[in-house]
Design goal:
Helices cover 40% and strands 15% of the residues. The protein is an alpha/beta fold. It has a single domain, classed as Rossmann fold, CATH 3.40.50. It starts with 5 loop residues before the first helix and ends with a helix.
């Protein structure tokens, strides 16, 4: 892992992007007849994304595969960016960033496998789930403790919002 000031890297983040398989899910895919596909998503990640949106920040998914399940989950969670069949994730993230007028330092990406590595050149903060491929772990800015599909996105959200001094206030709204 590269040595960075993690809190410093988290503070300017305005857009959080992530891969799907291995990040939003545990990487498993259940295929049925025809194009029928099942994926399991973490409700903790869903709550984290709700907190992210309450902070007024944007998020989205960039995945090389196409899945109706991903489209549905992205719609349920109101992702601002949904990019499926994105085989060149680096170019996709660059286009998203440029389209939103964001600097590299304002984008974070969570990826778990080799296809995600080029994105680290387009994002100011590159995170990986705890169970990411060893090469991804070696090149990530920070390895999350949580495995993909089991709250890794929530951990990333909490990490960034905490560094931005927003997390406690957002949590307090649930304590009233």
């Amino acid at each position: 892992m590269s040595p960075i000031d993690l809190n410093g890297a988290c503070r300017p983040i305005k857009l959080l992007l992530f891969d799907c398989d291995g990040v939003l899910t545990d990487g498993g895919i259940v295929l049925g007849n025809g194009r029928f596909e099942l994926k399991a998503f973490s409700t903790r990640d869903g709550m984290g994304i709700a907190l992210w949106h309450r902070a007024g920040l944007a998020c989205g998914v960039v995945t090389a595969r196409f899945s109706e399940a991903v489209a549905r989950r992205a719609q349920e969670l109101k992702f601002e960016e949904v990019h499926q069949s994105a085989h060149d994730k680096r170019a996709t993230v660059r286009a998203i960033r440029d389209g939103r007028g964001l600097r590299r330092e304002e984008v974070a990406f969570v990826g778990d496998d080799l296809i995600d590595l080029p994105v680290r050149h387009e994002a100011g903060l590159f995170l990986c789930p705890g169970d990411a491929h060893p090469t991804v772990i070696a090149h990530a800015d920070h390895r999350l403790q949580t495995p993909g599909g089991h709250g890794a996105v929530r951990e990333a959200v909490d990490l960034i919002l905490s560094a931005q001094n927003r997390l406690d206030d957002l949590i307090a709204t649930y304590l009233d």
